[in-house]
């Protein structure tokens, strides 16, 4: 499994990404993060991956190749667990989340791909 996590800082906040990640994984509220339009985001992911088989409300698998992913949410974050998913699929997920001004945090590296890191 490969994890991708997305959140948006409130204006004027920029926190330790690893500590934010750890709090979000524990489903804790983090001061300084925006509330996300979770339902809208899930609908957008469903639209972008409409050619994929929807396994349940929050999981998709590629019917024409390898890869699957599951979306876990809190009011402040979107976590996407990728299983055998190709890089271009993960890039599309990250690009979709960028539409909501939520840069990707890759806890495996650990790096958050945002303007403060470029």
Descriptive notes:
With 118 residues, the protein is an alpha+beta fold. It is 27% helix and 25% strand. The chain is built from 3 helices and 7 strands, in the order βααββββαββ. It has helices spanning 17-25, 38-48, 87-98, and strands at 2-6, 53-56, 59-61, 68-73, 78-83, 104-106, 111-113. Strands 2-3-4-5-1-6-7 form a 7-stranded antiparallel sheet, with helices on both faces. A hairpin with a 4-residue loop joins strand 4 (68-73) and strand 5 (78-83). Helix 2 (38-48) packs across helix 3. It is globular. The mean pLDDT is 94.
List keywords for this structure.
118 residues, alpha+beta, seven-stranded antiparallel beta sheet, 3 helices, 25% strand, globular
Quick take:
The protein is of the alpha+beta class.
Q: Which helices and strands appear, and what pairs or packs with what?
A:
Elements: E1 2-6, H1 17-25, H2 38-48, E2 53-56, E3 59-61, E4 68-73, E5 78-83, H3 87-98, E6 104-106, E7 111-113
Antiparallel strand pairs: 1-5, 1-6, 2-3, 3-4, 4-5, 6-7
Helix pairs in contact: 2-3
